[in-house]
Amino acid sequence: MTFPPPSGIFFLRLHFYGSTLSLQAYSGVKLRDPPIARFRRYGSERGAKRSGSAEECLRNILCFFILLLIGVIAFSIRLFSVIKYESVIHEFDPYFNYRVTQFLTKNGIYDFWNWFDDRTWYPLGRVIGGTVYPGLTLTAGSMWWILNSFNIPLSVETVCVFTAPVFSANAAWATYLLTKEVKGTGAGLTAALLLAMVPSYISRSVAGSYDNEAVAIFALIFTFYLYIKTLNTGSLFYATLNALSYFYMVCSWGGYTFIINLIPMHALLCIVTGRYSSRLYIAYAPLVVLGTLLAALVPVVGFNAVMTSEHFASFLVFIIINVVALVYYIRGILSPKMFKVATTLVVTLGITVCVAVVAVLVAMVASSPTKGWSGRSLSLLDPTYASKYIPIIASVSEHQPPTWPSYFTDINVLAFLVPAGIIGCFLPLSDASSFVILYLVTSVYFSGVMVRLMLVLAPAACIISGIALSDSFSILTQSIKVHLGKLLSSASVAGDSTSENSASQTEPKATKHTSGEKSEEITKEKQPKKNRKKEKEKEKGTVEKVSNKKQSEKRALILPLEVSVVAILLIVLLGAFYVIHCVWAAAEAYSAPSIVLTSHSHDGLHVFDDFREAYAWLRHNTEVDDKVASWWDYGYQTTAMANRTVIVDNNTWNNTHIATVGTAMSSPEKQAWEIFNSLDVKYVLVVFGGLVGYPSDDINKFLWMVRIGGGVFPHIKEPDYLRDGQYRIDSQATQTMLNCLMYKLSYYRFVETDGKGFDRVRRTEIGRKYFKLTHFEEVFTTHHWMVRIFKLKPPKNRIRGKVKKSKSGSKSNAAKKIEAKGRQNPWH
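== dolichyl-diphosphooligosaccharide--protein glycotransferase ==
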């Protein structure tokens, strides 16, 4: 039994609710509700809170384990290359990254920044610290150092092999965060699962693919996530993290220019469409200022962060957004009349500043023949630019435009889900969803220009497809839930007759209930007016919530039950087909390392390990200071695996040097010997696939050598190597083609293999079968004839003694001509 306290006095009362004890302070106000009613209300509220928190906790735990499984899938699906073959570095560029990482772990970061590599681009050399993107190397080196500090003795090669699979899991989790900010948790989980298995990303992140894209795609997605997070929250903390993530992206890959142009495009789109807010300013301004300052710290970028045309769009949008922010600020502190005057002044000043900045930028880039754009950027803006002016860029296979089947191979069913996802982004359209749409549109264009940039399209396609699948599942499951509810309600109608029979028994209880309601109404009348107003407001709120729920139910798309079930089954089958295709792509299409080749025939599996056989021969049978000439594709592998000095490599920073090698390969034997001898070359390496049917050999690449060489040395002309516009190596080939060094080194003694000289790649018999080499000698040919190594013969010694005068009369002029030719530049 309780007693009301005296007015003006506070005291503590103990309440025992089950097993809990609580202290409450009461004033002298008269208690309105009886203790039992308060006990019930307290218990129900507390139970609702407990149930809500338990459900939320269960959801978070389930989401965590799903993300953990997605990370395991992303890592494990990329291990086919290790399981089927061995733990080895793939492709060509990764070998340079592996070599640089080895140097970093042995000598430290300071020696890495100052490292001058004299084994590449002889005799020029290369400053590694100032010409490489250090993000991948520093990441793998840090992982190796952390593992060894925990007494996990993994080799540098092992860490490099598994760096890409580890960061593919990180990229999947970053995709979840980005999509969650756009459309919620369900869409985020779906997008993360799709990205974990998409073949386009697998092609660049299998175990052993130690290239810049291995960590750059994660940095790209995470930068976009932090931008959207800042845009949604307006937090300066996330804006700072966004700038740091952009800095990591700049350190990792040259594709950072895509970020610094896409985000300004989105900011400008928001301003033009009237969606400017302070959150947009916080998301954009710190990224441009702090991100540009951090990007300038990367040696390979340096002042290019403010001097090249790829970055000018961000500065122009930065000026525009500051003008718009100033206008919005003035509107809040001035009257309408003064605001008009101030707006005209601010806009005039802003236009003047923009015009001045544009004039300065134009003056800066006018002196450059490319107007401040890099060759790769111009080839993206103008797909025909590289083929016209920079054939070395067009010669790379991954810089070619993709075919339609490649879209189906790389993104598979996502190509059909993307349109539905775009519609979902417009319902409703927000700043985040508009950014995703803009990201998709730009990435589709760039992927159509270069097949390599399918990698940038993959995250956008996964995000949009995840939104489409999530919305579809929500609509279909909601439709099934509504239909099942109707079936249950119709089944409960049969039990209404039993309830009518028991109605007579419940009438006394109803009268008691009405009497109770009357007593409650009497107590309500005695309550103060303030409490009545609060109760009315609560009732209005509940009514509005109920009406909103009813409207949302009416607006929700309710499909027939059969259609919903069939649609879910079709989506499940589509997902199963996607998984099967992704596993096939990971196991068969993208797992084979380029350095170890395999083929299947009626005899079984054949392994071609000719590349490592050739590099091992160079390492063990040549001097340490010997120079090896080859086409630039094999420069990184020769330096890393054979440890020999090369003339050119895959960096392709000096077009003239590459053109010199191309000219030597395109010239007759004697002129080629003179060019290589002037470069102090001892060995020449060529790749030949005519015996085993390997299509990526030097004969198929030869026309690019002619084009690149002819771009610098005009005496090399492509039509001289073509017969009626066709590239031939048979009896119809031109004499220039049959006499060039590349033809002779590739087909030397080839007729001895089968007696006919049949080329299995070109599917024809060679035109010149029997010939001898006068200035080169064959020193090694691999087991399957895929790699052939030739040595330059030393120059002949001069004959000592006097020559008879009778014989010197007719030969003196010829000897003088030969000596004069010898003094000329051998490259012309």
